[in-house]
């Protein structure tokens, strides 16, 4: 399933369906394919928007969680989206959290899955010699409960990024920024209904991280999915969509009789 990537000014994004905006923010090695099942399911009820985050296109000074948050802020203001259900996976969740803390007025609800912002195990502190594809395959497999999810196509995408010196420097900058930018003391300010969807077998942001987000975000609910790693919307899309659908249904305005 391929979607038209639209361009509006300097922003590239996918926009499918009609209804309240469900905006999806991908992670560090995220691609639009991560959200394919989610887009297909929710475009029937929502306007699903996926901005292409410029993870590797910002200048080094702004290659940070804060730099990405400013990009999302400019995108939302440029497109004038309101009442947004903002969903982020991994680093995308971290960016969503910083955005909600700074600009709560445009956000109706928050959905986090495998989000950084409190604690995460990175790709590792050091990268191997460029060209070590087996190392990249093993690291990519760690994202999932089922290593078979690390397809050749996915491994090749990550390998291509890690084979470029400047891109590697930017990835390390983003990973370090995420570790430095700990939001533990600010999460109690989030007023929006928040849905936390976590893989029980997530080794990057383990289950205790989901529990800690639940403890710190006042109006939050926590769902664990078994036999699932760091990217539930990709690994177990049917279960993920049921949980997310149930959460969004509760927030629908009551039908006027």
In short:
The protein is an alpha/beta fold and 257 residues long. The protein has helices at residues 36-42, 65-79, 91-102, 133-141, 152-162, 165-180, 207-216, 232-235, 237-250, and strands spanning 6-8, 11-16, 21-25, 47-51, 84-89, 107-113, 194-199, 220-225. It is globular and about 55 Å long.
Sequence stretches where pLDDT stays below 50 over 5 or more residues: none
* Beta-strand residue percentage: 15-25%
Overall tally of domains: 1
CATH architecture: 3-Layer(aba) Sandwich
Overall structural class, as computed from helix and strand content, comes to alpha/beta
What do the pLDDT scores average to? 92
Biggest sheet record: 8 strands, mixed
The spatial strand order of the largest sheet comes to 1-2-4-3-5-6-7-8
- The CATH topology: Rossmann fold
Strand segment count: 8
Provide the CATH top-level class.
Alpha Beta
The radius of gyration over CA amounts to 17 Å
Order of helical and strand elements: EEEHEHEHEHHHEHEHH
Tally the helices: what do you get? 9
Instruction: Estimate the helix proportion, in percent.
Output: 25-40%
**Beginning-to-end CA distance, first to last residue:** 38 Å
What assembly state would you assign to the polypeptide chains in this entry? single chain
* CATH homologous superfamily placement: Alpha/Beta hydrolase fold, catalytic domain
Shape assignment: globular
């Amino acid at each position: 399933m391929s979607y038209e990537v639209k361009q509006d000014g300097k922003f590239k994004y996918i926009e499918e369906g009609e209804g309240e905006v469900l905006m999806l923010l991908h992670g560090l090695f995220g691609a639009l394919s991560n959200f394919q099942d989610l887009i297909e399911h929710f475009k029937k009820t929502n306007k699903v928007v996926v901005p292409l985050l410029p993870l590797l296109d910002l200048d080094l000074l702004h290659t940070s969680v804060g730099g990405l948050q400013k990009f999302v802020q400019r995108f939302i203001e440029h497109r004038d989206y309101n009442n947004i259900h903002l969903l982020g996976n991994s680093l995308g969740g971290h960016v969503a959290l910083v955005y909600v803390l700074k600009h709560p007025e445009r956000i109706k609800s928050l959905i986090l899955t495998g989000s950084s912002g409190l604690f995460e195990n990175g790709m590792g502190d050091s990268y191997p010699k460029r060209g070590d594809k087996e190392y990249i395959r093993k690291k990519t497999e760690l994202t999932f409960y089922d290593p078979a999810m690390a397809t050749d196509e996915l491994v090749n995408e990550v390998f291509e990024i890690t084979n470029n010196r400047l891109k590697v420097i930017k990835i390390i900058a983003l990973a370090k920024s995420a570790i430095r930018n700990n939001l533990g003391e600010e999460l109690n300010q989030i007023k929006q209904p928040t849905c936390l969807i976590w893989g029980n077998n997530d080794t990057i942001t383990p289950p205790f991280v989901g529990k800690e987000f639940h403890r710190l975000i006042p109006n939050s609910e926590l769902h664990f999915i078994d036999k699932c790693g760091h990217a539930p919307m990709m690994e177990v899309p049917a279960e993920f969509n049921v949980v997310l659908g149930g959460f969004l249904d509760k927030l629908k305005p009551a039908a006027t009789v």
